[in-house]
Specification:
8 helices, alpha+beta, 217 residues
Length: 217
């Protein structure tokens, strides 16, 4: 698989098969992803891996300590404006439509959202942290690391879902992982084999046309 194929194939998967992935495979992906660029070579990413027995233990942990509503950081600005607001609304409607959840079905939407806290059934995951004292450029570096990791996973035959929703469970994640307070939880990434039979995985989110975001001088 070349890079273009991996970029095209990558999706945010929201239902996984239980097929296990070995720690060695995750380690190889993380090692390769560490070649991602970072300003000044700071390499600000700090990663905790959940897999196998630790995934089972983590699910028990989450069952005993449900997420709070106190976010580690604001995932979106409080008053999102267009075109960003419309794009977020549209992809949400498209996703729920794949599984037949109507806009008025708030209970159904909350139930689906809660699946974030189970990594959508994935057998493995990583948690990504960054030092609180670092700034937006280092968050950008972490984003490049995550994209590289997800493309490498796609190349290796594994699918992923990056999840900023874990910002709502940062205290539970910290108490399980033992990550120090000076690190901020940015996101989790579910890792596994996509369940191709589940309709939610048919979603292909729309992208803006080139002329909407690029200016050629």
């Amino acid at each position: 698989m070349n890079v273009s194929d991996a970029v095209t194939a990558r999706r945010s998967i929201r239902d996984f098969l239980p097929d296990p992935i070995a720690d060695d495979e995750i380690a190889a992906l993380l090692t390769a992803a560490s070649r991602s660029p970072s300003g000044g070579n700071l390499q600000p990413w700090r990663i905790w891996v959940i897999n196998g027995d630790s995934m089972a233990a983590f699910r028990e942990h989450m069952a005993s300590e449900p997420p709070t509503t106190e976010l580690e950081y604001d995932i979106y600005p409080p008053k999102l404006w267009d075109p960003y607001r419309s794009r977020r609304f549209a992809v949400g409607e498209q996703m729920y439509a794949t599984i037949g959840i109507e806009r008025e079905d708030k209970a159904g939407r909350l139930e689906q959202f809660a699946r974030n806290m189970d990594f959508f059934g994935a057998p493995a995951a990583i948690f990504c942290f960054v030092d609180r004292e670092l700034g937006p450029p280092q968050w950008s570096d972490l984003g490049m690391f995550l994209q590289t990791f997800m493309l490498l996973a796609e190349e290796a035959g594994w699918q992923t879902c990056p999840q900023e929703a874990w910002s709502a469970a940062h205290q539970q994640v910290r108490s399980f992982t033992g990550a120090p307070d000076e690190l901020m939880l940015f996101c989790g990434v579910a890792i596994g084999k996509a369940n191709r039979e589940h309709p939610i995985n048919t979603l292909v989110s729309e992208r803006a046309a080139l002329e909407e975001f690029a200016t050629f001088l």
